[in-house]
Automatic annotation (TrEMBL):
Native source organism of the sequence: Saccharococcus thermophilus
Transmembrane regions: 12-35, 47-70, 91-115, 127-147, 168-186, 192-217, 245-265, 297-316, 336-354, 374-395, 402-420, 426-446, 458-482, 494-514
Keyword match Transmembrane helix: yes
Family annotation (CDD domains): MATE_SpoVB_like
GO cellular component, one term: plasma membrane
Superkingdom of source: Bacteria
Membrane topology of the entry: Multi-pass membrane protein
Subcellular compartments: Cell membrane
Swiss-Prot/TrEMBL keywords: Cell membrane, Membrane, Transmembrane, Transmembrane helix
This protein's name: O-antigen/teichoic acid export membrane protein
Length: 542
């Protein structure tokens, strides 16, 4: 694969992922105003089990198939990947249907773990209805994911990117229009509206699958031509193929399961723990803020930082395989620095502006402000976990991903109820932070053990980034205070947007300025910001 083609494919896929995630963020604003906190909690009750079942139904096979097909295509053994793909499609159909039936069937068993009927507004039957509505998507999504993996294995990223975007557009359109019709036109119940919202996952998957089928027929002649050119020198049984495939798939499963499993622990313990300290009446309101609305905002810097950082993982893999210790150290240094350079100021800025940020997205809510302020720092741990898990795969130590996740989840499970009873909603956040912290520390230790990597330089650089962030914070805090005073701020949406926009621009400008002046930008991003240097030189000459 040529470098230009690799870069083009990576760019297309990155753009597709980013567009899909941006759409997934934007829709929550009108969705919130349609269903409110109660509907948000109900939506989360259905969606979290669905995400876990998707991980088990696919088993990490789509990404593993991509790696498998790419490997044997490079050897000219095109038929092996095609045989595996056909077998994988049948397997995904079976696992998807089984997962759907199982989730639909056990919904009445899951619901009582979620709802405390003595205190919560939503009932057990409401939760059962919503879980069953989303279960139908399990029939389509595994098949769709495998086809995406097959195309990616053929170095074709366009089908995956476009199908992801179309899937999101169709899902969001169906979700918002469906909720609006149920609630505002038909005057139906909130449960029906949220059931329509979760069923939208099935409709969106149909849209994404339609795009992939169109691409398949469009590329069929090319794929048939590859089969004609098959060298036929390697013969593998399906058993041997799946054995190799499972080795590729395991790390994808564990990393993908992390956030849904943390959310599942909250889903099973949060309402009951809050009810035990007399806060049962407000627990669903708090749960929706913590596990749905605030979480959507916190994920923004994680998506941005990991998108930049993960592009360096292939170079880490190459340096490790070639035993190039100097390059490996350089790329590890750069990955950690880029991650912290992008995440730390975003997290601190979000915490400082928590009140207007939450109001700008949803509505003015003191609890929402408090939760977002405490939840923001977890973005650093989310990003570090994703990147260090990818690094473990890059140095061929992906088996430790399972150990890392298990340790983190154990900490979360042990602390969650106790901390919720002590600190209410903030307790759940502290338990999540503790779990991710343990996982990240373990990953960092494994990376050090198997690469002899030393963290001293990165620690010094992170301290410097922290100093720049502190400078930025001073300016943001002052600007926010001035704007609140000038606008006579009392939680209005428009005024919140103005405060966030101006404070954010000032903060970014200050941070960018000091990063450039200190040479940090050039150190991390090379000549990408060379135009700034040329501009300064021109000013000096004039």
């Amino acid at each position: 694969m040529s470098t230009s083609k690799l870069l083009r494919g990576t760019f297309i896929l990155t753009v597709g992922v980013m567009l899909s995630r941006v759409l997934g963020l934007i829709y929550v604003i009108p969705f919130y105003h349609l269903v409110g906190e109660q509907g948000g909690a109900l939506y989360g009750y259905g969606y979290v089990p669905y995400q876990i079942f998707i991980s088990f139904a696919t088993g990490g096979l789509p990404l593993a198939v991509s790696k498998f097909v790419s490997k044997y295509n490079a050897l000219g053994e095109y038929r092996i990947g095609y045989v595996l793909f056909r077998s994988g499609l049948r397997l995904m159909m079976v696992t998807g249907i089984v997962a759907c039936v199982v989730l639909y069937t056990i919904a009445p068993w899951l619901a009582p773990f979620v709802i405390d009927e003595r205190a919560n507004v939503n009932s057990i039957n409401d939760v059962v209805t919503v879980i069953r509505a989303v279960s139908f998507a399990l029939i389509i999504v595994p098949v769709m994911s495998l086809i995406r993996g097959f195309f990616q294995g053929h170095e074709s990223m366009g089908p995956t990117a476009l199908s992801q975007v179309i899937e999101q557009i169709v899902r969001i359109a169906f979700l918002l229009i469906g909720c609006y019709i149920v609630l505002r036109v038909l005057k139906g119940s909130l449960v029906t509206a949220v059931s329509v919202a979760t069923f939208a996952a099935f409709v969106g998957a149909l849209g994404g699958l339609a795009i992939l089928i169109w691409y398949w027929w469009k590329r069929k002649d090319y794929l048939d031509d590859l089969l004609e050119r098959d060298r036929g020198q390697v013969t593998l049984s399906l058993k041997e193929m799946y054995k190799e495939l499972l080795l590729y798939a395991a790390p994808f499963v564990f990393v993908g399961l992390a956030m849904p499993l943390y959310q599942l622990i909250d889903q099973f313990t949060f309402n009951h723990a809050m009810a035990s300290i007399g806060l049962g009446k407000m627990s669903e309101h708090a749960y929706s803020i913590f596990n749905m609305w605030a979480q959507k905002i916190v994920i923004i810097p994680v998506t941005l930082a990991t998108s930049f950082s993960l592009t360096l993982i292939p170079t880490i893999t190459k340096a490790y395989v070639e035993r190039d210790q100097k390059s490996l150290r350089k790329y590890l240094n750069q990955t950690f620095q880029v991650l912290m350079f992008l995440t730390l100021p975003a997290v601190v800025g979000m915490a400082l502006l928590a009140e207007p940020v939450y109001t700008a997205f949803y509505s003015h809510d003191p609890l929402g402000e408090q939760v977002l302020r405490w939840y923001a720092p977890t973005a650093i741990l989310f990003a570090l976990f994703s990147v260090t898990a990818a690094m473990l795969q890059g140095i061929n130590q992906q088996r430790f991903s399972a150990v890392s996740l298990t340790l983190g989840l154990s900490v979360k499970l042990l602390l969650n109820t106790f901390l919720i009873t002590k600190f209410a909603t903030i307790g759940a956040i502290l338990a999540t932070m503790s779990g991710y912290f343990v996982s990240v520390v373990f990953n960092l230790w494994i990376i050090k053990k198997y690469t002899n990597y030393r963290y001293q330089f990165v620690i010094r650089r992170i301290i410097f980034i922290g100093i720049l962030t502190a400078l930025m914070s001073v300016f943001v805090a002052i600007v926010q205070l001035l704007l609140k005073s000038m606008l006579h701020y009392h939680g209005g949406t428009v005024k919140s947007i103005v405060i966030v926009a101006i404070s954010g621009l000032v903060g970014a400008g200050v941070y960018f300025f000091f990063s450039d002046r200190s040479g940090l930008l050039a150190s991390l991003f090379g000549n990408r910001f060379a135009f700034l240097q040329r501009r300064k030189e021109k000013k000096a000459v004039s």
